[in-house]
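== Folding task for one protein ==

=== Format: two labelled lines per protein ===

==== Paired sequence and structure tokens ====
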Amino acid sequence: MSGRPMQCDPEEIGTLFLFEKLSPEQLGRLCAEGRVELFEPGPVYTEGDPATCFYVMLDGTVVLYRRVGTDDVEVTRTSQRGVYAGAMQAYIGDRVRQVYTNSMRVTEPTRFFVVPADTFASIMREWFPMAVHLLEGLFFGSKNTQRMIGQRERLLALGSLSAGLTHELNNPAAAAVRATSSLRERVAKMRHKLSVISAGPYPREALASLIEIQERTAERVAKAPALSPLEASDREDAVSDWLDDHGIPDGWRLAPTFVQAGLDLDWLDQVAAAVDEEVLPGAIGWLNYTVETELLMDEIQDSTTRISQLVDAAKQYSQLDRAPYRMADVHELLDSTLLMLSGKIGRRIEVVKDYDRTLPKIPAYPAELNQVWTNLIDNAVSAINGDGGEGTLTVRTGLDHDRLLVEFRDTGPGVAPEIRDRIFDPFFTTKPVGEGTGLGLDISWRIVVNKHHGSLQVESVPGDTRFQVLLPLTTGEDETAPEESA
């Protein structure tokens, strides 16, 4: 965009705070190589276009915008004389992409002193070489630091997740190993008992009845009801008394196993009726091994199923073999992230899931949303731990007009009002030195706002801090529809 050319007065230019220390010769060069232009209300330049000019406002009103998704969000509106915008990094040259990083428009006739980008760059290097070196160091140093700390933060997050996953996998894996060892021992005893029974003076019909009872016993184990502690205790006493009354040794030791397997007095009566009295102790012992092996196999199945679920959750969290942009169920993503972080969350923090399961799938980059959930949950846990270590983390989903809401609420001390506007800034952190990089919320904001065209906001009072992620339910008109998840 270009305005109407006007006369450039070196004395007027010298009254701007950027140029007030320049000599008359320098001001004369500025006017010779720059120009004054009058812009009518409307756009001056657009974000993303090549940055060709540096603008300094002489009088009028200027508004700066940033593109967020499909919307233009107003960043600054001012009538302060001397404010500047445009090709402010021209002095760096082609080491960075020289484009406008925002859009500028004026709301009333506004005059600018306009300097071509090349002229601005050469004047900066010639007149202020030390300042240019300092600014270049600040610019590239900040970028390098952000990149390196970002990599470090991802490694720390990976280490935390790995530790949590290892912790979660260890319990079912250890249980499976213990159960397998016990199962081998029980099967060996069962073989021995079967050898003793088969070598005894038992008729074929008695052995057939015993095998039939064994089959029915295994079926009962698979359908064992869940009992309260009081119910289980009462049944154990009754079964133990029955075994003692029928001359079965160590009845008190067998009773808990039988009750756990769902076997009651009626079943014991059926066993006693099916075999001769002299066979009953051996039959009960053999059936006890049957029950124990079934229970151990159930334990192994439960443990290996748990391991499989953890592996599936890890795969879901990392989105291996998934399309990067697809229709996703946020509840699956939240559950996988909570599972991955369960080791870090610990037992002293209560996790409450307040999900609206009627919500539809949304177009998203699932792996990156998982990174957002990770950062917000990690911050909530740190806040609670810093306030005594006990509290509640509530994860809520719902519909907010035409957007999907994911809210993380913690009972920590809250975010102080004086820093609330800074928490999304890069490198800003309230954690102790070495514990936080200050990039978690910055990364989360960029993923939610820039990549998903949503919003990320915080509401906080002591004991009630809520980070709210709002995501669109559909894609924008200029976006390709994502794949549907299998």
The radius of gyration is 36 Å. The CA atoms of residues 13 and 19 lie 7 Å apart. Residues 129-199 form the longest helix (71 residues). The first strand starts at residue 4 and ends at 6.
